[in-house]
């Protein structure tokens, strides 16, 4: 039986939970839970990883500190090194890595990501891959919007997606559409 641990990170948006486990190569983060309106990150950990112990680990705590700085608005590129990307399908991994390339303050579209991963016309599949992103914030799926510049979806809720984009300086029009001045293709 695999033993899971979790670390809680207090941010201005609420508590973020990271579930991780020790491996021969060191700790690997399996999932990051965002605070959601209806369900706290702590409850999501209990429901998804029953028995996960609350523990600390220097590398995971360092990632937690980086998440705190990111959510305070610091310009920081969150590292991929601890993420258990091998738990993703090859297609999802390619989508997540393409998404990770989107710079802070920029947006991309589901269709543009599909083209970047060599699957033009697979915008919906990209949306599904991002909807199942186990590593939100580190993999900045909040930076991907629909082709009409509406927000699309986000597992943390659209209010958090908009707040994250605004934190990064992305402007919106009066109808809630992204004013895409910087679009990453």
Please outline the helices and strands.
Elements: E1 5-11, E2 14-23, E3 26-33, H1 41-48, E4 53-54, H2 58-71, H3 90-100, E5 108-109, H4 110-116, H5 123-131, E6 144-145, H6 158-167
Parallel strand pairs: 1-4, 5-6
Antiparallel strand pairs: 1-2, 2-3
Describe the structure in your own words.
By secondary structure, the chain is α/β, with parallel strands linked by helices. The chain is 32% helix and 17% strand. The strands form two sheets. Strands 3-2-1-4 form a four-stranded mixed beta sheet. The protein has a two-stranded parallel ribbon with strand order 5-6. A hairpin with a 2-residue loop joins strand 2 (14-23) and strand 3. It is globular, with a radius of gyration of 16 Å. The model has no long low-confidence stretch (mean pLDDT 92).
Identify the notable features of this structure and list them briefly.
17% strand, 185 residues, four-stranded mixed beta sheet, alpha/beta, 32% helix, 6 strands
Short description:
With 185 residues, the chain is an alpha/beta fold.
